[in-house]
Structure of GPN-loop GTPase:
Amino acid sequence: MSASSSSQPDTKSKRKPHVIITIGMAGAGKSTFVQRINSYLHSQNPPQPPYILNLDPAVAHLPFEANIDIRDTVNYKEVMKQMDHSDKRYNLGPNGGILTALNLFTTKFDQVLDLVEKRAETVDYIILDTPGQIEIFTWSASGAIITDAVASSFPTVVAYIIDTPRTTAPATFMSNMLYACSIMYKTKLPFILVFNKTDAQPHNFALEWMQDFEAFQLALASHSGSRDSEGEPTYMNSLMNSMSLVLDEFYKHLKAVGVSSMTGNGIKEFFEAVEESRETYISEYLPELERARAARDQSLQDAKEDSMNRLMKDLAVDRARNPDTAKEDRWASDEEDEDADEGLDIDIIDRSEDLRAGQYIDVTRMRRDNDNINWPRPG
Ligand SMILES: Nc1nc2c(ncn2[C@@H]2O[C@H](COP(=O)(O)OP(=O)(O)OP(=O)(O)O)[C@@H](O)[C@H]2O)c(=O)[nH]1
């Protein structure tokens, strides 16, 4: 149990669960991280099993059993094979298939939210594991709809998983930070940089670069390729220098933790950062959400009034011109409206009653034994 949740036992059951959206480049260790935080929460006293949503339709094996799994709802390989009316294939590649599968799933996200809301009284954490192809979730309309839907219902934090050993070169580090920065400004949600795989590469260098602008510039200058044949800083080097100034501002708005999803190191600190992000969500995200909602409602209302006024004006002109046809005006029947409302024939499955729900595999042991993690999926 995290420090702060143990200090508020009376209010804990009344608190809304915290949503953790895990995002990261392919191979950064998202799934291993979700497995690790799942096992950490199970090992608390009392256990705090999270509610897990797998949003990656293409993942072959998961080291945990999700409560809601997109693969139960949409088969992305089938989606890729779908034909259009003229019997021509859409020719969707794997990424198109994943995106279309996510879009289809999103059309039913209200059902997902209903299921999650029902569990809200009994869980403390809701975890979203997103597709390995980071851009499919972060830059698609579906990703935004899902993110906005959960964030407007529950306190939410984005956990951006970074492959620390692959981020030691200044240029890679900065590209990663710029990517994180773009996601943070897009979602406007509290954000935690999770430097993963610290068992293989400690993340002190990253913290130093984030805290000390000059240390990063020094690393940049000493990196090969930073000067051209005449000894002048390369264009790339100058560009990175300027961009690192932009990032300096960004670093002030986020937390960074180092974890090893393999050994479990740093997971407690991660949950402390999640707890702190709750305050940011309440003090910064919620007021912004309320403001955006009020502005949207107002502009919808304005647009409605405007089109109603124009309609009434047109009707008045029309009736004046054609007094006889005005008698034949009628509105579409309710039945016709209902027909237009019919949705897609797909359903969301909640596996919480399954015997396996919430179970997880110790990845470390499993991988050492070269075991197979292909969970049989109920038909
Ligand atoms: N040493 C070390 N390896 C790790 C750690 N976390 C994950 N890995 C390894 O990193 C690789 C990728 O891990 P995954 O969890 O599959 O990464 P992912 O981001 O979900 O990958 P995609 O499914 O491609 O999105 C695997 O070989 C993991 O064993 C860690 O903390 N330490």
